[in-house]
Structure prediction request, 229 residues.
Amino acid sequence: MSRQHQFKAREENILAMAEQLLLESGDGDITLDSLADQLDLAKGTLYKHFSSKDELYLRIIIRYEEQLFEINHIDDCPSAGIARMIFQQLFNPQKAMLLNQIEERLAASVTGLNRLFGELYDIRRQRMKRLLDIISIYLKDERSSLSTRDYLSSIWAMGQGGAGLLNSSFYQRYLGRRDTLRYVFVQQMLELPSHYPADETDQNALDEDMQELVEQIDTESEEHRNATY
Prediction:
C-alpha cells in the first residue's frame, strides 16, 4: 500500500472512531487525547489530518453527507427512494440529531471553516437534486397536486421529528414498538400525496416548481464555487 493510501486509510479510521466516540459521549464533544488513545496514535498524528477539533467534527458531518448521497443514488422505484429518505434518520436517530446539533453549533460560532462548509453544502445540494428527481417522479406516479417543495419539507419534518421522538429518553417510555412506529411514519409519507389529487393544471405547476428548485440549487452551487475562502 502506498503512503498516500496509508494516509487515507488512517484518516478514515480516525473519522470512524471519532464518530463512534461522539455517539457514545451523547453530548456532542470528545477530547483529542481520548481519540488518540483509542487509535493508539500520538496526538500530533491527528493534527497531520485535521488542523483542529472543529475541523474534525465538520469532516465527520461531510463524511455522513457523502454516505447519504450514495444511499440516495440507488436506482430503484421512487417509493423505495422516499422510504430511504426517512429511514436514514429514523434507524439512527441519535446520529442524525447529534450531527445536526454539532453542525448548527459550528455554523454559529466557529470561524475559518468556510471552505469545508462550502464542500458540505455542495454535496448536500447534489443530494437534494437527486431527492427532487425521486420526489417529482413519485408525485407524478401518484397523480398528486402536492408541490415538490411541500412534499420535500414534509419528508424532512417527519424524519427530523421522528428522530427527535425516537431519541428522546422521556418519550421513549411511552412509545410502542420502535420498528412498527418507523414503518407507520414511512407509510404516512407514502400515502400523503394521494390526499391531493391533481388535474392537468396542477401537473404544469408541479413541473414549474421542480424547475425553480433545481435552478435555485444550481445558482447557489455556482456562487459557492466562485466564492473565495
